[in-house]
Design brief:
Layout lengths: L1 H19 L17 H12 L13 E3 L5 E8 L10 H9 L3 E4 L20 H18 E9 L1 H12 L5 E5 L11 H13 L4 E3 L17 E3 H20 L6 E7 L7 H12 L5 E5 L19 H12 L3
Parallel strand pairs: 2-3, 2-4, 4-5, 5-8, 8-9
Antiparallel strand pairs: 1-3, 6-7
Helix pairs in contact: 1-6, 2-4, 4-5, 4-7, 5-7, 6-7, 7-8
């Protein structure tokens, strides 16, 4: 009996050690094939739109706001987990009015009219990388200078673009999901990421009491998949590992955080800022905790959002007038 207890303790210790060891994901390099011009860029956008089947809600389809020609600046906006391009619609129109061509792609497995879809369980970190490459390949033909901005999962994708893509002029990383606020620090982040990627998927309600009657934007899924969190944080770990060793490939990096963010571990975001700052002049901005903002500072319909406060700041960094 004592022998079995010892075996169990050893197995538990080994399991914990494997869970919390530092995350150093490999194989997340960019493979750019930038559009040679405006016409080729439109063909790439059409290929993104081809994934918008009849199952996708109309307001959640990939959005292109184009002036009909290549412009001096193109802005790419990457929405957050369980949201869709509608989240960035208002900011997209501000950037368009300021002269930019704007591309707001629908992230894989998002935007379904059936908000109870199980598609989110299929989110994969490698797919997020390949998708970001395709979007930025299209952006390269839409404008001379590429700005990419993203929130949460989209923020991690924007951070990956900042680290990997030399054709990105400016990356605006908004509240990136590099770690979970409820399990802060690199040890817990590593354990949570491995568990979320390895264990069977589970769906979690954003609001366990209201469930499908989630207040706020009606295009948002009322629940998220643990696999999607794992994929996001795995990609984030790759960004963090690369940032420790190499300078970001992009020209300018902007990191925006939300004070008191209930979703994101801001200490992990601060670590990324420090690593980038060792190589480049990184711009950081934090919305004060006293504003009591939602993690989603972009969607104007979001409960706890305050576009009157957030939009002037976001627009200044994403599409300066």
């Amino acid at each position: 009996m004592r022998r079995y207890i010892v075996y169990a303790l050893v197995l538990a210790a080994v399991s914990v050690a494997l869970l919390v060891r530092p995350l150093v994901p490999r194989g997340f390099a960019s493979h750019p094939h930038a559009a040679a011009g405006y016409a080729e860029a439109l063909r790439l956008v059409d290929s993104l739109r081809a994934a918008d089947s009849v199952a996708i809600a109309p307001e959640c389809a990939t959005l292109l706001l184009s002036h009909g020609v290549r412009t001096a600046r193109v802005v790419v906006l990457l929405h957050g987990l369980t949201n869709c391009p509608a989240q960035f619609d208002s900011l997209a129109r501000i950037a368009y009015a300021r002269g930019a061509n704007v591309l707001v792609p629908r992230l894989p497995h998002h935007g379904f009219a059936d908000r109870m879809t199980d598609e989110l369980a299929r989110v994969d970190a490698d797919e997020l990388c390949r998708f970001t490459d395709r979007v930025l390949d299209a952006a390269a033909g839409l404008g001379d200078s590429v700005t990419v901005a993203g929130l949460s999962t989209g923020g991690v994708m924007a951070a990956w673009a900042a680290q990997e893509r030399a054709d990105v002029d400016r990356a605006v990383v908004i509240a990136p999901m590099l770690g979970y606020a409820g399990a802060p620090g690199p040890v817990l982040t590593a354990a949570l990421t491995r568990a979320a990627c390895a264990l069977p998927n589970a769906f979690v309600w954003w609001d366990g009491k209201r469930k499908q009657d989630l207040p706020g934007p009606k295009h948002v899924y009322p629940r998220f998949a643990t696999r999607s969190i794992g994929a996001t944080m795995r990609l984030g770990a790759a960004v963090m590992a690369h940032a420790r060793l190499t300078a970001p490939a992009s020209r300018t990096q902007v990191i925006i955080t939300v004070g008191g963010d209930q979703a994101v571990d801001n200490t992990a975001v601060a670590t990324l800022a420090r690593r980038w700052s060792a190589h480049a002049d990184v711009v950081t901005y934090e919305f004060p905790a006293s504003l009591h903002l939602n993690h989603d500072v972009v969607d104007p319909e979001q409960v706890g959002g305050n576009p009157a406060v957030t939009y002037p700041v976001l627009a200044r960094f994403i599409a300066p007038g």
